Amino acid sequence: MIRTRTDGDVRVVTLDRSEARNAIRPEDLTALSEVFERSETDGSPPVTYLHGAGDAFCAGADLDAVAALDDPAAFARRGQRVATAVEESPTVVVCGVDGAARGGGVELALAADVRVATPRATFAEPGVSLGLFGAWGGTGRLPRVMREGDALDFALSGRVLDAEAALRTGLVSRVVDDPRTVADEIAGGASDALAAIKRRIRDRRDVEAQERAEAEAFARLHDAHADEIARRRGE
Predict the structure, then answer these.
(1) How confident is the model at residue 204 (pLDDT cuts 50, 70, 90)?
(2) Domain coordinates of the chain in residue numbers?
């Protein structure tokens, strides 16, 4: 499901499960972790471009996998590990969202350094309709990216934001026809300057305690709403 290639000064990471709108399974989390953690040592280009194949960016966690979880807190922690690896990657990560970003897809985008949407992009955190919420670090990152009031409205309502609404609220920084062009633009900068800028802007207090509480809350809700998750899986 995860494809990588190098194109000049940009490493391209593609979520490639288009038949399922690039929904993420546990094994895909493992593959994504390996891709971004390996960038610490594999001499990756200075910019990584993360995007989805087909007509969606990412539909979030695969509901078949969510319904079958024996240890939902561990699943949340795996997703957090991926998002942290994206955020802490020594490369600048540009996320291009074309089509739908839902749930875990939004959380992957939140972990990127730069989020760029096409006019077709839409964003939502629909977990609340299942009695869940985004637990891959999203509750910590969302109010840092959007204003707190907008973040609460977005997460609590489960409503869909189009590209222009995402731009107004700060969820994305640009709306363009081809997000890859933004990755290429950034890659034109000096690689050491790009890395230094990212390190300084990303420097913040430890979020380990917040993420631990997030995973525990997700596990409690998963157990409480298991029947509804199973029902919705079949829709």
Answers:
(1) low
(2) 2-177
Name residue, tokens 């949340």.
76
Strand order in the sheet with 56-58: 56-58, 100-102, 122-124, 161-162
| CA gap 100, 204 in Å, rounded | 30
Query: Residues 120-136: pLDDT tens digits?
Result: 999 999 988 888 888 89
In terms of pLDDT, which residue wins out, 168 or 134? 168
The mean pLDDT value for 71-89 works out to 92
Q: How many CB atoms are located within 10 Å of the residue 233 CB?
A: 15
CATH class of the domain comprising 2-177: alpha beta
Is the pTM higher than 0.85? The answer reads yes
Structure tokens belonging to residue 33: 């972790």
**Strand partners of residue 9:** none
- C-alpha to C-alpha distance for 183 and 188, rounded to whole angstroms: 9
Cα 52 → chain centroid: 11
Parallel/antiparallel/unpaired status of strands 10-15 and 2-7: antiparallel
Please give the angle made by the CA atoms of 15, 176 and 143, to the nearest 5 degrees: 70
